[in-house]
Amino acid sequence: MHRGFAGVRRIILFSIRPEYARAILAGIKKFELRRGSALNIQPGSIAVLYASGKVKRIVGHFTVGKVFRGSPAYVWRIVTSKKEYGIGVDAKKYIEGSTSAAAIEVLNPHAYTSRISLNEIRMILPGWNPPLSYTILNEGDPFVEIILKPLWRKEGILEKLLGHENQASKNMD
Predict the structure, then answer these.
(1) Does a structural domain hold residue 172?
(2) Is 123 helix (H, G, I), strand (E, B) or coil?
(3) Residue-range definition of the domain harbouring residue 114
(4) pTM for this entry
(5) Residue 150 within any structural domain of the chain
(6) How far apart are the C-alpha atoms of 72 and 76, rounded to whole Å?
(7) Hey, what's the torsion of the CAs at 134, 59, 46, 97, to 10 degrees?
(8) CA angle 102–107–108, rounded 5-degree value
(9) Residues linked to residue 33 through DSSP beta bridges, in sequence order
(10) How many domains is the chain built from?
């Protein structure tokens, strides 16, 4: 399991089309494809999903499994060799235009019962914008501290996701 800041699992915020987010959270889509090598995405990381388009909400997360990197042709071969990979040919067209690609295995998808909208986020963090593709979130990042941790606490999954979360912050609720 990859540990990021302070021994805590690395958190990645992905912008993703709503139909792909639904497929991931329903357990249908087994890989998330990205253009570029995605070198900073490591197994064990928490991949938080921001559904773009008309949804504009934080909708869930998954644990990053294996990450396959290489040419688009190589990545496509790897993904399609897996049983029930849940990706259509539109994904192949998406990565074909890039010099490198990554297939990120989806493990343990979790849909949030409380979904936070872009407007709600901006009420708390004025001017916040979702990433164009993805971003790595660091310790102390307001998005982690003010948006994600309270959401995960409400969902009852904070300890599970972050492991040894500071006991003092847990007892503040």
Answers:
(1) no
(2) helix
(3) 5-139
(4) 0.87
(5) no
(6) 6
(7) -30
(8) 150
(9) 103
(10) 1
Residues 40, 4: contact at Cβ < 8 Å? no
Contact 114, 32 (CB under 8 A): no
- 160 falls within a domain: no
Q: Are strands 46-51 and 57-70 parallel, antiparallel or unpaired?
A: antiparallel
Neighbours of 39 (CB within 10 A): 10
pLDDT surpassing 50 at residue 159: yes
Q: Residue 145: what residue type?
A: E
**CA–centroid distance for 11 within its chain:** 8
User: Is residue 18 in a domain?
Assistant: yes
Up-side HSE of residue 120: CA atoms within 13 Å toward CB?
Answer: 12
Angle 20-139-18 (CA atoms, 0-180°, nearest 5)? 10
Q: Are 10 and 18 in contact (CB under 8 A)?
A: no
With beta carbons less than 8 A apart as the criterion, state whether 69 and 88 touch.
no
- CATH number of the domain encompassing residue 40: 2.30.130.30
pLDDT digits (tens, 9 = 90+) for 35-69: 988 888 999 999 999 999 999 999 999 999 999 99
Residue at 154: amino acid letter: K
- Residue 74 makes CB contacts below 8 A (sequence gap 6+) with 68
